[in-house]
Amino acid sequence: MVTPLRRALRRAGSAPAPDPQQPPAPPPPAAGQEEIRRQNLGAMLRYVHLHGPTSRAELTGRLGLNRSTIGALAAELVASGLVTEEVPTTPRRAGRPSLVVSPRSVRVYATAVSVEPERLRVARIGLGGRILDLREAPRPHGSALLDAVPAVAALIRESERELAADAFCAGGAAAVADTTRDDDGTVHVTGGDETFAVALDAALVGDGPGRRGFVWGDLADIAALAEHTRGVAAGVDDLVYLHGDLGVSAGIVTGGRLVTGHGGRSGKVGHMVVHPHGRRCGCGSRGCWETEVGVAALLRRAAAPPGTSALAVVRAAALGDSTARDALHGVADWLGFGVANLVNVFNPDIVVFGGTLREVYAAAAGTVRHRVDTMALPASREHLQLRAGALGPDAPLIGAAELAFENLLTDPLLGPAAGSQ
Amino acid sequence: MVTPLRRALRRAGSAPAPDPQQPPAPPPPAAGQEEIRRQNLGAMLRYVHLHGPTSRAELTGRLGLNRSTIGALAAELVASGLVTEEVPTTPRRAGRPSLVVSPRSVRVYATAVSVEPERLRVARIGLGGRILDLREAPRPHGSALLDAVPAVAALIRESERELAADAFCAGGAAAVADTTRDDDGTVHVTGGDETFAVALDAALVGDGPGRRGFVWGDLADIAALAEHTRGVAAGVDDLVYLHGDLGVSAGIVTGGRLVTGHGGRSGKVGHMVVHPHGRRCGCGSRGCWETEVGVAALLRRAAAPPGTSALAVVRAAALGDSTARDALHGVADWLGFGVANLVNVFNPDIVVFGGTLREVYAAAAGTVRHRVDTMALPASREHLQLRAGALGPDAPLIGAAELAFENLLTDPLLGPAAGSQ
């Protein structure tokens, strides 16, 4: 099944190509000059988007194009309103300095949405990955995903109230968490779907910069994409990103590509059963991993009142509270237990901890590592790195922005100049 | 890390492209006529390899090329010695019949090797997937992988003793199981590596059709590739193939691409711990899934003597032996337990059972399904199919042949005509 995220990622070159076992399509017609220019513009824009201001001289080397081509491409991106070119302020060598190409990170932005179990967040994120504006609103317990549309649309409108006249929105994307909680604390496994993106587009018709063509994806998947693009797993091909909030989900990258599964519902690792006689889980099963490593497990072990944050327990442990410390290390041990399973299944280069699991891992890394070393197969743990996420709670927003920028990075001629013509 | 299997699959178009998050390479130069012809020859050869004899008229439609191009390509493949063209014996319509293009499945073959815990198998498999010759030898308990090289090389030489003068070997590949057993029954987790392929090539220097350029892969991965290419999961993008022998391994395809992991060691699902207080496993851990679903678990439950085959227990159950029946359904229940975990993690379209698990599933599908329906998340089990593998014990050999043919299918100009020039 082609899920919306998979479709968006296919545009991004990050999803599977058509099945090689199927009758292959005939080869594409030879790329024309126009197509090559478009690809080169995209390559240059993507480079400065990911790596920041870069001199023409460096771009010449990185993109493998000659100086005059680089100059022409940069000029075209300047004319399109996507980058600026400036003489560097600190030339390092003698001779005429190479102009520096920078993304126009204030003018050109993406709308990033994060629908979390207990809050809604909206960011405008500039080309280059800079957060320009960040707003949030509480999410009522027990509310359905579509109930969030008006509040999210309102946050987006607020975020665009003082836009410059020439601002350009390159697109929008939403990271949608897969759990919600009722008032009585019952956790439900839910999930996003295309209707949310469609409804959000519809709610914004006539507002701001026009239709954004929202796409959506699972929050853990999108946060994994962020850590894979700009975070601790940049450049790593095989990664398991674990996101803790009410439950535990994973975003998994294998061979440089995000695993989405048949219906975009892969990575529900919190519902991997690790204990046949374990506790009852919100999903109806028993002994699911998240019953031992979710926030509820930490609070239960720490005898902390509902509503206490994971961070509060971690802090109490650091201050010497022995109940909190036992709770932390008990959860960390179970965390290592499930990580070992995932390491045996995926043989990743790196496991990244995000959300509440980031706090747990940061405070009890030794306990997690010890359990992984006890349980994972030697060949699979040899090169394994365990890491706290580098982007913290912004990961879902940064990942959503990457997804939202993808059309523009693939074809910069879709940019502001095209819109104003 | 680029594992040999990943490298081979990349040639096959079935492995990840370079990381899209990295600075992209400049676009390739416009494809020349020669390159397009090569791609078209590959597309036609792959089509008849996978689908069997096909009329020019059908190829015209399937490949989206015009009739004269199809005629020229077919003529070139005939001249290369890779296909034949014949007037169909049963024309269905009036008018001049369309010539039928068939792979030369006796002349052109691949050398497929399957290194299993207790036997070594070698097959010559013709273009089109037909097994031309199949030989096996026992594998001594406790022997290392490299110990198998002389015996495998001898089987290959035997299989080529009566080759036709114009026979052409397109390449070789080995599927290597990841477990071995000592004489005392202790199971070890091992794995293949590049040295086996190199040693096998070296052992065959000067024999038969020259250097095969052996590649190797994990047996479960290669069997998964076979079911994905020619078996029950043909055309399916998201698949978990489970292979049972001494242990349990998986070959996993997500988004149409095989998951290999950092070092080619993904899919060790038998060592997913499902019971923290469970039985001691050969890997040193406790409560691994394979301690409940491997052959040893079936024999233990059935109180059958070591060396009894899984099939014998399944047959005894079918004949009404209540101990055997309880053993079968006990194992089937645990099988469903782990499958539910994998379904929550991967959200596959289909789970395929191979090796000894094929027998267990075929005899107790209802028990497996019931456990999956109890434990897997509703959204992930909705479209889920469970199936016995279609290729049976030949799956690793058929998958290895697909891997071995890949160079030729990518570039048919490497074929026999090139070799004889």
UniProtKB/TrEMBL annotation, chains A, B:
Pfam families, sorted:
ROK
UniProt keyword annotations, A-Z: Kinase, Transferase
Q: Does the keyword Kinase apply?
A: yes
Q: Say which domain of life the source belongs to.
A: Bacteria
Q: Which residues lie within the region annotated Disordered? A: 1-33
**Compositional bias annotation for Pro residues:** 17-30
Q: Which GO terms describe its molecular function?
A: kinase activity
What family does the entry list?
Answer: Belongs to the ROK (NagC/XylR) family.
Q: What is this protein called?
A: Putative NBD/HSP70 family sugar kinase
Q: Which organism is it from?
A: Pseudosporangium ferrugineum
